[in-house]
Amino acid sequence: MRLAATIMMMGGLCAMGYGSEGLEARVADHMGSPTLFINGEPETPLIFLGEPNLAPGMPFTSQATMARDAGVRILSFSLHMPWPQPGEEPDFTPIDEQLENALSVVPDALVIPRFTVAAPHWWLDANPGNEMVFSDSDEYDGDIRWSSVASETWRQESLEHLERFVTYVEEKWGDHILGYHPCNLTTAEWFYKRSWEPVHSGFEEPMREGFARWAQQEYGSIEAVREAWDQPDVTWDSVRVPTAAEREEAHRGMFRDPATERFVIDFTQYQQIAVVEPMEEMAEAIKRVTNDSKLVVYFYGYYFELMNIPKSGAASGHMMLDRLLQSPHVDVITSPMSYLDRGAGGISAFMMPVDSIREAGKLYVLEDDTRTHHTQPDTPFAAITATGNLDETHWEHRRSFARIFPRRMGTWYMDLISEGWLDEQGIWDEIDRMRQQYDAALDEPSPFEPEVAVVVDERSAAYLAADRRLSSPLLSYFRSEWYRMGTDFRMHYLTDVLEGRVELPKVSLFLGCWRIDDDERDTLHEALDGKTAVWFYGSGFQSKDLAGAERMSKLTGFAFDEIEAGPAEIRFTDGYLLTEGIEGETYASADLLLEPRWAVRSEPNVQTLATFADDESVAVAARNMADWRSIYVGTTGCPAQFIRNILWEADVHVYVDSDDVVSSDGVFLSVSASSAGEKTILLPPETAIERLDADEPVTVRGNHAIETFRHGET
Description:
By secondary structure, this protein is an alpha/beta fold. The strands form seven sheets. The protein has a nine-stranded mixed sheet with strand order 13-12-14-15-24-23-22-18-19. The protein has an eight-stranded parallel barrel with strand order 4-5-6-7-8-9-10-11. Helix 4 runs parallel beside helix 8, helix 5 crosses helix 8 (262-289) and helix 12 (390-404) packs parallel to helix 13. The radius of gyration is 26 Å and the shape is globular.
């Protein structure tokens, strides 16, 4: 019997493709959680990722064996997709050797191979003009050469090689293949090469041709393009990509002006499409070749992480996950856990708003590449904080598991460079314990319904200036605060709210939601009925075609005055419950100049919660609207304590009044200590508590659990 795998959206929806075997459509206890099914049975999605090299001294054999004994039988590793020169036959020998090696260790393994679809260098030489061109290519002396994702020639040929590769693997190894993971671009993760350098990409002819085709589809007529771009002489044949100088301009300080910079905004949007289009085509091809029986897995959508690249997130090509999630051929989205704030006392942050993936019926899989106490200190990978001992490794694995378990998501445990990061029985004993916990919950309801949401907008990324002055502190580093708000939360793209896919909870934090059209504003106000909105710097400043502070006023309910560009640093006032515990404290960098900078106009119904530190104009304020509560934070974030104060005011259950990391669905609770010492955990009314990892009782006083933590303990 050929193995078949599918993602089933539990809750009555039909499953997507299960070959000839069929799959029961039913209402299940997972209550809307996308669940991995293998041959009709739900499976806990825990995976071991390591390269099956059986050479002496390589640790794959011991790790894979311990993984299998711990109940983890799904493996992922790299296979080489042959791309032979014309007239040559593809060599599948390395593929056979890798799979034979893996199955010799774990005979019943199920494999998700990852493989690159990038063209080899000989192909780039034979097909000049089809590789990526950068703003500094004339003087660049590095060795990065890569096929352009916009190249129609590359797209066609890569599809041919992919289909031949999948056909071969299916025919010979299909009973062990769970799915396919096509990879490309930077570190195989589908964001543009050299994104971590201060350069622009996309100057090759295929990108220009693709942009012209997109403009024709988007606008319909050349006259409409001429008007939108203010290029009266442009023709379809003369459409060009913006110069580096044009991309560096931003007419409204940290923002682009939609009225005058539509040309650059449009191209920036196309850069995302150019990445997603071949991903969609490859996913469709895999489904076709496998008769819809195997998974398609992709790295993509690293919204929070890539907002920290030098030219800001839109330069990455990763700002169109919402479109990729609409593809019926894509099953699994994956990413590493964030490299921000790792190590003991860290936060195990997601790189993206993973709950949008869950809402779309896809399975999210976290790549847990924790640098364990077995990571060699003299390797570059040890620069990402490694654990110091087995206890710390347990704590970090628990902290990451606590992120995915309430959401019923997956994870793979990764020995990134075959160094033996997981080569210890104690590590797999702990993973086995967590796996058993997940197994036991597969047929239980998933009660994950946090009272807090964080909402971001990937569309707005194209409307930012091409630098990270704003995006880095607000959308990347600010996670170190809101991940410590004392309770759990869900993360969504704004489109989920605008299109009615999710209902906003008691409190919603709106980050990076700069582009909001008039009809979208009305939709948001309706969604906020009876709830609290926390708007961060510049919310609603832009629409598709316009920009202005009056737009912010209509969205947030505050009147704004544009004041002189100045420091982002704010100072909290006293006299309000919302500033309790942070009175007189400052937040944000005095070295970052906000441009534009807006002050909230003082009015009788407005509470002044913080002022700009340099001129005491109002930076943070609160007011009651007719049907909802509005809070505006006019800088690049706020302390975790301020968020907790907002949550208390809104009657949200906060588990800890400290900057520790909480994950909970109301049944399962995890606390990870950002600092050592005694912690007081507020329990919901009529709640009992017991440990999952030991037999000792928890000390409870009234409705408070008292626990003493070591630094980083989970």
